[in-house]
Amino acid sequence: MVYSFNGQTVAGALKRNQWFMVLRIGMVTLNNTEQEKRLNFLSAREARQQ
């Protein structure tokens, strides 16, 4: 997500959008861990086959 700040500080924008950003980061983190689990499972399966 891209913000245009128009001279505002990042901290000020973060205070206003804090909860939204926290939720967003949390969702992205969850997605990443799910994908990593899948990748780890697949690579472990491949390693066993070799």
Q: What keyword list fits this structure?
A:
50 residues; mainly alpha; 2 helices; 78% helix; rod-shaped
How does this model look, in words?
- With about 50 residues, this protein is an all-alpha fold.
- The chain has a domain of about 35 residues.
- It is about 80% helix and about 0% strand.
- The relative contact order is 0.08.
- The model has no long low-confidence stretch (mean pLDDT about 75).
Structural class: mainly alpha
Give the averaged pLDDT, no decimals.
76
- The first-to-last residue Cα distance is 41 Å
Beta-strand residue percentage? under 5%
Topology of this protein?
Layout: H1 10-16, H2 18-49
Summarize the model shown.
It is built from 2 helices and no strands. It is mainly alpha-helical. The radius of gyration is 18 Å and the shape is rod-shaped.
